[in-house]
């Protein structure tokens, strides 16, 4: 086996069909879409086509799609833009404890500006409880921002139910759907979604391009000020190759959605079974059924996720972990802590995320390679040694009940 990429939740390679459509817009069709001569019209036309493709995949109208520089910008725009537009109406926002940092840190920033934020807890599978959401709503609540699917554990939230409740209460509903678009069927109208963030590089499109769906009539301030691009709402000369790539990637993902999700669910379930049945003292994180087709997240007791990643890398396997040592932080993933994992189990987690190019041979390969890696690391672990001797069972989150 050559290189095996199991980190599709972090980013994905650009598909060949996508790159082919993008290339002419770097050189031949370089016109600024705001100009009126013919090469500029080519750019403008390409943007229109991409906007139609994005709108179609979401069940939105073309004039409800605004291109941005990615998922983080879309999240910032939705939350800060509504907070500013509705600050006279109220100052309370509801989100969850397991959002991506693009949402969490935006909310923390707004707290410093006087907004009040409720961070809903989640259950052991990473789902919010509708009764918690309902109880959190206040007369001053202006926005509910809840992610469609989690990037670490893959749990999918009850989005249609949340949208229905938000609309009954007259509150805007934003969802960070960066992990869901192209993987799960979405209809913004049926699901009562007012704003939705998406990103190109999580669906085999290019990096640095994304979009925000804004339902017609939603009151939101602009975030990037300057020229009149994006119908006066998002300034900056359009990233035409990026927009073309995003449009093509989303069109392909949407057309192949059923087929891809069938394939990925088969591979994912084989992977989960192959690991949990062959390695002792491990457990699946996230929801068993309501989870992204490509997400597998497993915690292994007595070892560090980071050391697993290094040994996997030596076997040509690229994956991710809920342990954050490399980022200079001692705290493990906020998502794994929110589902109730103790620190040591959160540190021992491994995230394998499958995508368009993964094969069954690759899944079989990691099922074969992982058990000896875990065994080797445990043999070097003083925690495991104590556990085997029976002297330090408690405090490890094992089930000894003492
Ligand atoms: C990747 C990701 C983002 C950020 O998107 P960028 O395009 O990388 O800025 C936001 N939310 C979620 C859930 C993500 O997975």
What does this molecule look like?
By secondary structure, the chain is of the alpha/beta class. 40% of the residues lie in helices and 13% in strands. Strand 5, helix 6 and strand 6 form a beta-alpha-beta unit. Helix 2 packs parallel to helix 8 and helix 10 packs across helix 13. The protein starts with a strand and ends in a 13-residue tail after the last helix. Bound molecules: pyridoxal-5'-phosphate. Pyridoxal-5'-phosphate binds next to helix 3.
Strand order across the biggest sheet? 2-8-7-6-5-3-4
Bound molecules: pyridoxal-5'-phosphate
Round the mean pLDDT to the nearest integer and report it: 94
Instruction: Give the uncertain stretches in residue-range form.
Output: 395-402
Structural class: alpha/beta
Q: What's the total count of β strands?
A: 13
What is this structure's SSE topology?
Elements (H helix, E strand, L loop, with lengths): L3 E2 L10 H7 L15 H21 L6 E4 L2 H15 L6 E5 L4 H12 L3 E5 L9 H7 L4 E5 L13 H10 L3 E5 L18 E5 L10 E5 L14 H4 L7 H16 L1 H20 L5 E3 L10 E6 L4 H10 L2 E2 L1 E2 L12 H5 L4 H5 L1 E5 L6 H20 L2 H8 L13
Parallel strand pairs: 1-11, 3-4, 3-5, 5-6, 6-7
Antiparallel strand pairs: 2-8, 7-8, 9-10, 10-13, 12-13
Helix pairs in contact: 1-8, 2-8, 3-4, 9-13, 10-13
The structure holds pyridoxal-5'-phosphate (PLP).
